[in-house]
Specification:
Strand content: over 45%
Number of strands: 57
Mean pLDDT: 95
Number of helices: 1
Largest sheet: 12 strands, antiparallel
Structural class: mainly beta
Shape: globular
Helix content: under 10%
């Protein structure tokens, strides 16, 4: 969402600082994408929710593009990662296996990398590849953003990176003020439907339809004064459709594939918190693709502020519909997965609570917890009853939740008894309070700065002016939901991981160690015989490497690169074998280990022959992990198995510019200018081919007849729209053709003397046929320029 003057006025009234950034926001660069600009945290700061999601740092507002795919829920959100106020919107990203345990991930959409105004929008999973955007084994995540029109972005790697479709050009042009596209699958008509807020003479949504997510047709408009910003449209409960606005207002009706209609146009509110931008419930959005068919919703709570973050999300709820005298009403119930956080519980039955009487909750001290309590209102004489939360011995409390019998209100909001009873369900977090009734029709979201000091963790159940019967109640502590997965370390090894020595924090390049002696970072995976590989980047560290067959303390085998000039295989008390080679500070090295009984082989930088082949029988099996020694180093792509970079026979490769790392899918590069990765194989006349891709940025290609510094010929694909053959100082030839970020292209080069031919894909005719005399022979390698690239399946004949 982007603020109109109307919305800005509301925000300025409630918090004049919201639009003044504490730190100037910045745009990123393709070669540094995806960025992870978050300082380390334990998530234990005052007022930080322990089971409500907040960004690791920075400003957050609207939920965006909530999807379930490939075993994970993805929560994207409006985000300024570089300050505590609204500015220069990015799309933040977090994932969860269960809607409860969230892990901060790198930024998903980033100004400077992705075009357009990256304001609020929606997302879907294109399971049937209706768009044709799928390029690998994973279903594409497709998201929609921009203002005064709609642009499309997509990911084929489970949200790790996003590409702009059609260069980010708007696929829907809307001349009026508009924003916040939300897309849903219309199963009955096998099409996609989109609602976009627009100001065509007033508030309302424009409805579009599409067979493929890319080509959209205007279908209708639903106008309503209440329908401002961040609309959501979704089917619920037997085919009825719900249309919502940012304020949590909604109507229930029907959708015929073109138009939404309702015979009850007066909206209802699904949450009774403060429903304005920056309030306690705003811009709610539903997930698409939930595996069990549930409709799950989360909203923005703007009132939560801490030392390093601003804003949080409401706890996810399952939506339902019930009929009532004034029409169908939405129900909101916390997702059942909340049970994964429950610790010790206490229960009460048939207790009488009297004014001035004993407190049934006396003696309980708690910081984050859940209370469910049912009261007999029909027989009550008390004027009010309820809970004083985070209460103290002097009678004060941080928040009181009370039912007023005469007014028929809970927390000041209307709630008539059901069958003579009232149920209140409270979710109490460090900076959040959510209140529900027993039917799900009543909900209030609030931000409360609870004092977590032990002297302020009391709970008082009270009644005033009489008594009330507590039919039943349950108190349950709720544990923290943080710290269960990896933010930036890419690995197929199971967690939980743990550090044994030093500190290990998340950075954009993986897991970074700060150690004085030996420090280890260890997974829960154990094995005896295995293939194990990973990337090690030396910063200030003297050495860093891979650890395997290790104990929980790190005692086992380690193979590392050491700035003294060796690759070393060692265990406590013995250096087993070394391989002398130049090792540079700030260099990145790929290590691969194979164990078979007592035999241990080590490969360096994709060389075909092991640089170490030794035997030792001290450790037969144990954990996989990483090691750093005396300083700072970063590890990444810690994977078991043989998948990786497939290439021709060579000795160890050498990087000249850029950072080159290895994933199970191939070689990945990141380079601001020209970066080269060079083998020791040389040739004069040959056929050289391979697969290359520009994930984000400018160009990727194959290099040949090159010097040890990369000076030679390069044939590359350029996202400016060409295949190019070039050498330092000269573009020899180009072939104009569209090139799409994220798509893999096959290049084949054939040289014969001064003649150089280049083929694209499986074409039978070369797209370039040129002559040049500058380089007669030299090394084979790869090139990356101005972005992130990948390469795989290199062959020479």
């Amino acid at each position: 969402m982007v603020r109109s003057a109307r919305a800005l006025l509301v925000v300025l009234v409630i918090a004049s600082a919201l639009l003044v950034p504490a730190v100037p926001a910045t745009a990123g660069t393709a070669w540094e994408y995806p960025e992870f600009p978050y300082p380390a945290t334990t998530y234990q700061e005052p007022f930080r929710g322990q089971f409500h999601f907040s960004s690791q740092s920075g400003w957050m507002n609207d939920p965006n593009g909530l999807v379930y795919v490939n075993g994970l829920y993805h929560f994207f959100y409006q985000h300024n990662p570089h300050g505590l106020e609204w500015d220069t919107m990015h799309w933040g990203h977090a994932t969860s296996p269960d809607l409860v345990h969230w892990t901060q991930k790198p930024v998903a959409l980033e100004p400077g990398v992705h075009p357009g105004t990256l304001f609020s929008g929606g997302g879907v999973v294109d399971r049937d590849n209706t768009s044709g955007l799928k390029t690998g084994p994973l279903d594409p995540i497709v998201v929609f953003s921009n203002t005064n029109g709609v642009s499309i972005f997509y990911s084929n790697d489970n949200g790790r990176s996003f590409q702009a479709y059609d260069g980010g050009r708007k696929q829907i042009e809307i001349p009026e003020e508009s924003r916040d596209p939300k897309v849903v699958w219309d199963a009955a008509r096998h099409q996609w439907a989109m609602v976009v807020w627009s100001n065509r003479g007033g508030n309302g949504v424009d409805v579009y339809t599409s067979p493929d997510l890319l080509h959209w047709t205007f279908a209708s408009r639903y106008a309503a004064d209440w329908l401002f910003e961040c609309p959501d449209l979704f089917p619920l409960d037997g085919g009825r459709w719900v249309l919502t606005s940012a304020t949590g207002e909604y109507v229930v009706g029907s959708f015929d594939g073109k138009a939404f209609r309702t015979d009850r146009p007066q909206p209802k509110k699904m949450n009774l918190g403060t429903t304005y931008a920056g309030g306690t419930f705003y811009a709610a959005e539903t997930f698409t693709g939930s595996p069990d068919g549930r409709v799950v919703q989360m909203a923005w709570q703007g009132g939560n502020r801490g030392s390093s973050w601003t804003g949080n999300a409401t706890f996810p709820v399952t939506l339902g519909l019930v009929d009532s005298p004034d029409g169908p009403r939405i129900t909101r119930t916390p997702v059942a997965e909340l049970s994964t956080l429950r610790a010790d519980s206490r229960t009460w039955r048939n207790e009488t609570v009297r004014a001035g009487g004993p407190n049934p909750f006396a003696g309980i001290l708690a910081d984050t917890y859940e209370i469910t309590a049912t009261f007999d209102v029909a027989s009550a004489t008390a004027g009010q009853f309820g809970f004083a939360l985070h209460s103290r011995s002097d009678g004060s409390a941080d928040r009181v939740v009370a039912y007023d019998r005469a007014a028929g209100t809970l927390d000041g909001k209307p709630l008539p008894p059901t069958g003579g009873e009232v149920t209140m369900r409270l979710l109490v977090d460090r900076g959040q309070l959510e209140i529900f009734d027993g039917t799900g029709q009543f909900s209030v979201a609030d931000n409360v700065n609870f004092d977590s000091a032990a002297v302020s963790q009391g709970i008082r159940l009270f009644a005033t002016g009489g008594q009330v019967r507590l039919k039943n109640a349950t108190f349950t502590r709720l544990s923290t939901s943080w710290g269960t997965a990896q933010s930036t370390l890419e690995s197929n090894l199971a967690g939980p991981w743990h550090a044994a020595g030093g500190s290990w924090t998340d950075v954009g390049g993986g897991k970074q160690a700060q150690v004085t002696g030996d420090g280890f970072y260890l997974s829960a995976n154990t094995a005896g015989d295995a293939d194990y590989q990973g990337d090690v980047r030396l910063g200030t560290a003297r050495a860093a490497g891979l650890t395997f067959r290790a104990t929980a303390e790190g005692a086992g085998y380690t193979v590392n690169v050491d700035t003294s000039g060796v690759v070393k295989l060692w265990r406590p008390g013995r250096d087993i074998a070394t391989y002398p080679t130049a090792i540079s500070a700030d260099g990145t090295y790929h290590l691969r280990v194979r164990t078979a009984g007592s035999r241990i082989q080590v490969w360096l930088n994709h060389g075909t022959t092991p640089v170490i082949d030794a035997t030792d029988d001290a450790y037969a099996s144990g954990r996989f992990g990483a090691n750093a020694y005396q300083g700072s180093a970063t590890v990444q792509n810690l994977n078991t198995g043989t998948a990786g970079f497939a290439a021709f026979t060579s000795g160890p490769w050498t990087a000249k510019g850029g950072t080159w790392t290895t994933t199970p899918d191939g070689l990945r590069a990141s380079s601001s200018g020209d970066g080269f990765y060079l083998s020791d194989r040389t040739g004069s006349d040959f056929t050289y081919e391979g697969d290359v891709s520009v994930t984000n940025g400018v160009a990727a290609g194959v290099t040949f007849r090159a010097t040890a510094d990369g000076a030679g010929y390069t044939a590359n694909i350029d996202t400016g729209g060409m295949v190019k053959l070039w050498r330092p100082g000269r573009d020899i030839a180009t072939y104009p053709t569209p090139m799409v970020e994220g798509r893999t292209y096959h290049l084949k080069v054939q040289t014969a003397g001064t003649r150089i031919r280049v083929w694209l894909g499986n074409g039978t005719t070369p797209v370039i046929d040129a002559t040049d005399t500058a380089y007669a022979a030299g090394r084979f390698g790869l090139n990356a320029y101005g972005g992130n690239t990948t390469a795989q399946h290199l062959a020479i004949s």
